[in-house]
Design goal:
The structure holds 2 protein chains of 2 kinds. By secondary structure, chain A is mostly helical. Helices cover 68% and strands 0% of the residues of chain A. By secondary structure, chain B is of the alpha+beta class. The chains are: A mainly alpha, B alpha+beta.
């Protein structure tokens, strides 16, 4: 993030503003970038989800607002902002208002941890992978509060289901991350990305030694995001809408925003630890070939790295939507059984396998 | 056993993915209209020169939408389209084929009185 920081300080000193002001106001800048990026990404994701689900079911999806319906989510957002906020009778007002914020804030923090390019990381900690998983488990606190505070039996059941689901699917994720950490010998996400740098480009990616881990991770993030086929907390046919039954207007919009922001950032996380993050598919950066003589080559490379990560993320998002279009919902009992009896042993097996592969390839350190 | 399940999962996803290359079934309605089947039942048309005032259609109508009056040589045919369910019983029971259900289905209107149609054999319009 030094790049952005020095650019900002330079910009202010050119306008004769003291450095202390720059130091104090600097954290606002990454916040603004993340906030704008989340809104933009969610607008795209919601439209993409509806269009792609239409594609898989031989429909057209939204096609009225704007050309090919691309303004549909904007229209929906305006509608939902104009709606009334309803406080249900007997609801705990404070918790009821706090819950959407508690769901949304972790999603926003997670966006800051992902390394978008080699110089474009908002929060670069030495244990950022661990920090990522610990914060990724936080939204469920907001969900349980939302179910509890709404004074509604459907939302309470939905929230309890969500809590149970996240607890049982968190453990395999930890084991998979552990095997990735073994492969890259680091807990820093940027170092994990750089450990996948290989002379034979794509084959350095961690997805090849850790293929079982990748599928376990995909299944687990589906469960953590409460998406199909693990959408028990929001099961329409049983629980109306689960934990957000009582929410309307802006508060519901926050839940919605958090859900899609989390989906994007989880896919970005998987792309980072398994698919080489911001590294290109080819051996060289495309901008290195195109603008090799340009003075802004570095900037072009940073932009290209962001593009590569976004591309990989959207391919994963597309896969999640394919899963949603294909699989029916699991029952509550088989959900738990699947996690504890299949995924957890499989992730342990994957961990041992990865350790053996690492030992064979690199030898005794 | 586990491999058969994995194969079923993969083939399921492939089947869904293949559907994205098939033709869309959605029609963008006001611009593109659907080809109606031959025996589609829309708004009933009455042909006064065939009608023999037997009133079988009146009795056959389950929604009581049709009323036929005969004053001397003037036959009056009243149909309430807000009650009509387009079942076609009048058409099937008519001995002279004086009522035929057309392919006209865009009958929505702002004014309910427009749906009460009165026709007689003296007027030009049918």
């Amino acid at each position: 993030m030094n790049y952005l920081y020095f650019w900002y300080i330079n910009f202010l000193t050119n306008h004769h503003i003291p450095k202390i002001v720059a130091d104090i106001t600097y954290p606002v800048l990454p916040f603004c970038i993340i906030a704008a990026a989340i809104i933009f990404a969610v607008l795209i994701l919601v439209l993409a989800e509806r269009k792609i689900l239409g594609l898989f079911t031989q429909r057209k999806g939204p096609n009225r607002v704007g050309i090919w319906g691309i303004m549909q989510t904007v229209a929906d957002a305006i509608k939902i902002l104009c709606k009334q906020n309803i406080d249900p009778v007997g609801a705990d007002k404070f918790l009821f208002n706090a819950a959407p914020i508690l769901v949304f804030i972790p999603a926003m923090i997670l966006w800051g941890i992902i390394p978008y390019s080699s110089e474009f990381i908002f929060m670069n900690f030495s244990v950022s992978a661990l920090l990522y998983l610990s914060i990724a488990a936080l939204p469920v606190v907001g969900i349980i509060l939302a179910g509890f505070a709404g004074n509604n039996k459907y939302s309470l059941i939905g929230a309890i289901r969500s809590g149970a689901q996240v607890i049982s699917y968190e453990l395999p994720v930890m084991f998979v991350l552990l095997s990735v950490v073994v492969l890259s010998s680091s807990l820093n996400l940027k170092d994990i990305v750089y450990s996948q740098l290989n002379s034979i480009s794509v084959f350095g990616w961690h997805v090849f030694p850790c293929i079982i881990g990748f599928f376990i991770m995909i299944i687990c993030i589906l469960a953590e995001l409460n998406r199909c086929p693990f959408d028990l907390p929001e099961a329409e046919s049983e629980l109306v809408a689960g934990y957000n039954v009582e929410y309307s207007g802006m508060r519901f919009a926050l839940f919605f925003l958090a859900e899609y922001a989390l989906m994007f950032v989880m896919c970005a996380f998987i792309a980072t630890i398994f698919f080489g993050g911001f590294l290109p598919i080819t051996n060289k950066y495309i901008s290195e070939m195109l603008f090799s003589n340009s003075a802004f080559l570095e900037t072009f490379i940073y932009i290209e790295q962001v593009m590569w990560l976004t591309l990989k993320t959207f391919i994963l998002v597309f896969f999640l939507m394919l899963v949603r279009a294909t699989l029916p919902r699991l029952s509550s009992k088989s959900l738990m059984k699947f996690s504890w009896c299949i995924l957890l042993p499989a992730s342990m097996f994957n961990f041992i396998l990865v350790v053996v592969i690492k030992y064979i390839v690199e030898g005794n350190p | 056993m586990i491999w058969s399940k994995v194969l079923a999962l993969i083939s399921g996803h492939l089947t869904v993915f293949k559907h994205s290359f098939k033709k869309r079934v959605t029609l963008e309605y006001p611009e593109i209209k659907q080809n109606l089947p031959e025996r589609f039942r829309g708004k009933p048309n009455w042909y006064p020169n065939k009608c023999i005032t037997c009133k079988i259609c009146m009795k056959a109508c389950p929604a009581d939408a049709i009323v036929i009056d005969k004053n001397e040589d003037k036959i009056e045919f009243k149909i309430d389209l807000s009650r009509c369910i387009m079942c076609g019983n009048c058409m099937y029971n008519c001995p002279k084929d004086a009522i035929v259900l057309s392919h006209e289905y865009e009958l929505a209107t702002d004014d309910k009185s427009e749906l009460n149609i009165t026709l007689n054999n003296k007027s030009e319009a049918v």
